[in-house]
Structure formats: C-alpha cells, structure tokens
Task: inverse folding
C-alpha cells in the first residue's frame, strides 16, 4: 500500500496567517492527490483534486501544489472558518490511502 | 443536486454483522462508483473499498478482505456495505462518497456503527 505522511500533525496559527501543510507519498503518485477539510461531526469536504485543481466553490485562498511524492496545501490568509482538520488522499493506486491528518488550531 | 443519504446508527455485538445503506439521487446512478470510508472515534479516515454500480465490480482494501461485501441495487439507486464478524475496533462512522475522477466530491452524512457487548 502507498503510505501518505502529513506534517505537521498539529498546527497552531492565527487569523490572517499563511499556513502550509505537507503530504509525502511513499512512492510516486504523479498528481493523483486530493485534499479534504473536515470539521467535527461532519463529512470531509473536497478542497483540491489532481494536486492543484481547486474544487468549485472553494475559496481561492486555498491552493495545492506538488507532484510525484511531495505535495503541499497552502492557505494564504487564514479565516476563522478554516480551523479544522485537513487530510490528503492518494488516488493513484488501490487502496486509496489517506494521510493521518493535520489539525489546524487557533493560536 | 447530488445527494447521498445513509441509513441510521447501528449498535451491534462483537461477532455480529452490520449492513449500511447509501441511497443516491441527483445523478445517473450507474455512471459513478461509490467509495466507503470509515473513521474511528478521534481517528483519521480509512478507505475501505469501492463499488462500480454499473456491473457491481468491487475492490476492497486488503485489511477488510473476507469481512466486507459491497453490493448495489440499481432499481433503488442504493449501495450497501456489509461488514461481518465485528470487533470493538470496528466502532466508527462509516461514510459513502461518490467517485468523481477517483476522488470524492460528494459524501453521505455518515453512519455511526457501535460494536459493544
């Protein structure tokens, strides 16, 4: 199975900050990577697909980059609604594995 | 609009089975596969498998092989996920999601399955 490793596991930041979350794959997955946001008690919400494509309706402060084995999710200016947990997922090869998650907390 | 509506919460004893349903609407059911993902309390997301409603083709994560069965009923646009021989660590929220180019843009609301004696 392809292992997905996110860092950091927890991130403390303030409204207005620029933050970056990293996701590394144990082998190349080309650009077959998605990013999701999840809030407590809710289903995940798709933010980014194919590593850098912004899902319709998602604010432009979210962006993704990378290919191969290293990927990043960047939030350019944190808003109060952005404090949540973020997951990457590879969809290159079954099983479609997730990273362990990054919890974004208010500093 | 695309909607996935899952069945309600279940409480089962260890060793029992559970069958969770996911009813799709707002699109042509047979055109998109359905994923199943679970999340144990306080833990991350775990991909369980996928079913293609057009023909019923399935692929399961190795961890669940032999215990999970995904089926579909095209007459009601519903997919099912059955998990057998339940353990306490199968306690989780189970989500279905619709495949969109292999990632998941649409999700059900989740079904809590509690395994407890």
Result:
């Amino acid at each position: 199975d392809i292992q997905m490793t996110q860092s950091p596991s927890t991130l403390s930041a303030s409204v207005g900050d620029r933050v970056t979350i990293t996701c590394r794959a144990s082998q190349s997955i080309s650009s077959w990577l998605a990013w999701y946001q999840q809030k407590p008690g809710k289903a995940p919400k798709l933010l980014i697909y194919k590593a850098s494509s912004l899902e319709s309706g998602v604010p432009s402060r979210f962006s993704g980059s990378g290919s191969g084995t290293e990927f990043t999710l960047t939030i350019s200016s944190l808003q109060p609604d952005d404090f949540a947990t973020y997951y990457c997922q590879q969809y290159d090869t079954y099983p479609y594995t997730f990273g362990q998650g990054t919890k974004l907390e208010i500093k | 609009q695309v909607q996935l509506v899952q069945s309600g919460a279940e409480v089962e004893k260890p060793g029992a089975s559970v069958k969770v349903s996911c009813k799709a609407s707002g699109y042509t059911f047979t055109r998109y596969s359905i994923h199943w993902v679970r999340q144990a309390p306080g833990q991350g997301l775990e991909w369980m498998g996928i079913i293609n409603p057009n023909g019923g083709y399935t692929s399961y994560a190795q961890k669940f092989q032999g215990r999970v069965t995904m089926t579909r009923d095209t007459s009601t646009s519903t997919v099912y996920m059955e998990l057998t021989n339940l353990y306490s660590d199968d306690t989780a929220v189970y989500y279905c999601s619709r495949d969109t180019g292999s990632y998941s843009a649409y999700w059900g609301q989740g079904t809590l399955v509690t395994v407890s004696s």
Chain B has a mean pLDDT of 97. Chain B touches chain A at residues 35, 37, 44-47, 49-50, 59, 61-62, 95, 97, 100-105, 107-110 (CB under 8 Å). Residues 38 and 94 of chain B are 4 Å apart (CA to CA). The first strand of chain B starts at residue 3 and ends at 6.
